[in-house]
Amino acid sequence: MSNESLANLLREERRFAPPADLAAAANVTAEAYEQAKADRLGFWAEQARRLTWAAEPTETLDWSNPPFAKWFADGKLNVAYNCVDRHVENGLGDRVAIHFEGEPGDSRSLTYADLQREVAKAANALTELGVQAGDRVAIYLPMIPEAVVAMLACARIGAPHSVVFGGFSADALATRIQDADARVVITSDGGYRRGKPSALKPAVDEALTRPGTENVRSVLVVRRTGQETAWHEGRDVWWHELVDRQSEQHTPEAFGAEHPLFILYTSGTTGKPKGILHTTGGYLTQVAYTHHAVFDLKPESDVYWCTADVGWVTGHSYIVYGPLANGATEVLYEGTPDTPHQGRWWEIVQKYGVTIFYTAPTAIRACMKWGDDIPAKFDLSSLRVLGSVGEPINPEAWVWYRRNIGADRTPVVDTWWQTETGGIMISPLPGVTETKPGSAQVPLPGIAATVVDDEAREVPDGAGGYLVLTEPWPSMLRTIWGDDQRYLDTYWARFGPGQSATGVAWRYFAGDGAKKDDDGDIWLLGRVDDVMLVSGHNISTTEVESALVSHPKVAEAAVVGATDPQTTQAICAFVILRGSASESEGLVEELRAHVAKALGPIAKPKRILPVAELPKTRSGKIMRRLLRDVAENRALGDVTTLTDSSVMELIQSKLPTASED
């Protein structure tokens, strides 16, 4: 989007000032910025009091061996107790914790008392299987309540879990089992996806034939679909046979705040996945605080829904640990937004009276493509806060989201954070921030983030560069599992350590490009790998995508850079047209001219391919590395994580008709 177009949009929308019904909370939250600025560690120590500690911490941060941080290190607590038991003890046992909605239409609701019983039984079952504190447990499940129960049961007994997204292949699962040296795998016969059962157990069986998985002694299997399931006697055990017969009583043990809580693997395009290690006290403090502050949570009345999968960090932090630590009521949905019909999400919002809705820009753009008339059929008046997560959201999608889902009255919090950061780091706050479409805007209280140039110098307002974090934060990753050197090399070597006014400064490089606008607000530009070098100019794929989507005929776009002998890289775009638009003669040139007008001639794509669909994972993320393979005429990489691998065949078939200069 050009600066002129954005300015017009902001004027039209009056810059989305905080709505009056959230103003009551504004003073308290606004004061947090000043409190954190004056005493950052004191601020986080106060947030830690949101939790129930078996031993109160006396030290907030140990930064004596940077960049290896320890938060609240002398404190002890149990995460599952904080997420479940204490709410029951406080008289909230009858409050619904989870409204589960299965894709086929089955549903059930678990109160906090129900959840306490189920977690206790699962913890007893894991103990019977020989799992002890420190043992790793791999979890490979669909979006069903047992996934949440399994994670909490592991936390209850101090066994770090490694949740593996249910769409990953047997090879990807095996790699994660090997690296974590998991002793138990929790899976299911399958789950429902796009109208039919999808098997999971076969991938586990195949993974456990790989070298390095020999230490797995048990596979605990949830019966979800009723599919025929191969069985390995002596290793496999049904969840309903083992867990259901366990005692509902279990005494949680307190663990040190730096006890490992989970390992979550990031899947890079090449090389061994990185096992991101998160520990207990600091992580839970930050996800509880941010879930409360960013969404202006009122747990006694809100119904919260995050559409992520528990296999990703968003599911860990903002489906399981943050919401449940806050005693929230939430929705857990198994399926996709278009199954069995394209209004499925809005049907669920209407059914449960969802008040806070948190989803990904990719999903928002898909809903845009389906048309404004679909959400208009449902009563969405219960919604009061909308959230965006996962990638930079283009302003056009932001505005559509607020207008068509939020009825022009609901604030949008556009959040930036990562698997590595553990919790939300940059976001506007409802009731406080005058929001801007497409900008994550300002670091949260207690977070120190800025944009620097190649020499690690902070850039002035109006300039761009690299997003860095300049102070440790409670939910930060502690290391890469089993590889401290890779942790140092990957996250801390690019911009540090260096000298500052107060001594040696360490700068965590997030891997994202960003810019500051004239107000000093932060705009994310995507991964630096997605910044293209075209004739000596750095051009963000996100900005080109946003320019394309601002055209009335384009619903969604993905842009990649392809090697070019003349310009270093050439801009290649793949676009999905809106339902009413046709692939007419001259369309490609029309779109190229539109981008040139919005961003300048240097940003005009060399190639634009209209396609029926983009390659997406089951979590909704676009697999741009596969599009780079197509653009550079390479053999395709691994497509096993795609929702529909045939999409790539359709895209490749379009290549002969590509428009090139």
Automatic annotation (TrEMBL):
The keyword Cell membrane does not apply. Mg(2+) binds at residues 549, 551, 554. Residues 91-473 form the AMP-dependent synthetase/ligase domain. The keyword Ligase applies. CDD domains: ACS (cd05966). One of its GO terms (molecular function) is acetate-CoA ligase activity. ATP binds at residues 390-392, 414-419, 512, 527. InterPro entries: Ac_CoA_lig, ACAS_N, AMP-bd_C, AMP-bd_C_sf, AMP-binding_CS, AMP-dep_synth/lig_dom, ANL_N_sf. Its EC number is 6.2.1.1. Catalyzes the conversion of acetate into acetyl-CoA (AcCoA), an essential intermediate at the junction of anabolic and catabolic pathways. AcsA undergoes a two-step reaction. In the first half reaction, AcsA combines acetate with ATP to form acetyl-adenylate (AcAMP) intermediate. In the second half reaction, it can then transfer the acetyl group from AcAMP to the sulfhydryl group of CoA, forming the product AcCoA. This is Acetyl-coenzyme A synthetase. It comes from Streptomyces pathocidini. The lineage of its organism: Bacteria, Bacillati, Actinomycetota, Actinomycetes, Kitasatosporales.
